[in-house]
Amino acid sequence: MLIGQFLSNADFSIQKTDSIQLALEKLQDMLCKELVVLNGDEYIGFVNESNLLDADDEQAPISNIKINTAPIQLKFNQHPYDALVMTTVYNSSLVPILDQDNKYIGVSTQLDILKAIALIQSQNESGAIIVLSTGLHDFSLSQIAHLVESDNCRILNCATKINLESDSIEVTLKVDKTNINSLLNSFLRHNYIVMETHNTVAAFDDTAERYQQLMNYINI
Fold first, then answer.
1. 3-state SS string over 87-115?
2. What's the pLDDT at 62?
3. Strand, helix or coil for residue 207
4. Cα 33 from Cα 213, distance rounded (Å)
5. What is residue 68's DSSP assignment?
6. Are 94 and 106 in contact (CB under 8 A)?
7. Residue closest to 155 by CA, chosen among 121, 132, 181, 118
8. What is the rounded average pLDDT for all residues in the chain?
9. 160 has which bridge partners?
10. Is the pTM of this model over 0.70?
11. Is the distance from CB of 62 to CB of 15 less than 8 angstroms?
12. Strands 155-163 and 94-98, how do they pair?
């Protein structure tokens, strides 16, 4: 999965020869906090509302003001996780995406990046989420996978977080099964601590049930 597959349909760019006034109007129309500055199809940097409002002459071109040239850019064939890191490090709402010739082809917004991460982590698939804890030196992903597969489940996603203070590791699993009682018992028998469980289907079903109860009450 490549970040180039998750480009915004909106145009968040402006040419360096465009006026500051035009940039301010575009920021307002698009309800965004920054715009990508281009020279033709060459990516230059960012401008935000603060940069634009500090200008003395709104009719002057963008090139007359300070442009943020921080290295906030990715190639189209990089991973969405790279985009997530970039938005976090630079506190940016947009990540410009370049082609193999370093030409600008569009941006990925924070929403586009979140959609990509959700697909990677199988968040759209029904199932259950299990959060386990075990000793750092006892951790065995192959054993966890074996226990899951022995219960006729598949791991859709797996993430880990190390806690050096307690010398433990937290493992978050997304499995493709909603009835996980026997799987939880299997983990407990193998000395895993079950910290949390979340049934994604149950959560949606519960919401639907409450909605129907409300409608029944209103119709009384």
1. HHHHCCCEEEEECCCCCEEEEEEHHHHHH
2. 94
3. helix
4. 42
5. B
6. no
7. 121
8. 88
9. 171
10. no
11. yes
12. unpaired
* Cβ pair 144, 132 in contact under 8 A: yes
SS3 160: strand
Per residue in 161-182, is it b (16+ CB within 10 Å) or e — as a string? eeeeeeebbbbbbbbebeebee
In tens, the pLDDT along 104-137 reads 999 999 999 988 888 876 666 788 999 999 999 9
Residue by residue, what is the 3-state secondary structure of 101-151? Answer: CCCEEEEEEHHHHHHHHHHHCCCCCCCEEEEEEEECCCCCHHHHHHHHHHC
The residue behind tokens 């993430």 is: 159
Q: Is 177:128 a contact under the CB 8 Å cutoff?
A: yes
For the record, the structure tokens of 1 come out as 């999965």
- The first and second tokens of residue 162, run together, are 């190390």
- Please state, in angstroms and rounded to a whole number, the distance separating the CA atoms of residues 5 and 164: 37
| 3-state SS, residue 44 | strand
**How many residues are given for the chain?**
220
- Dihedral (Cα; 16, 18, 19, 22), 10-degree rounding: -120
CA distances from residue 141 to 155, 160, 199 in whole angstroms, order as listed: 11, 10, 22
Which is nearest to 46 in space by CA: 76, 86, 7? 86
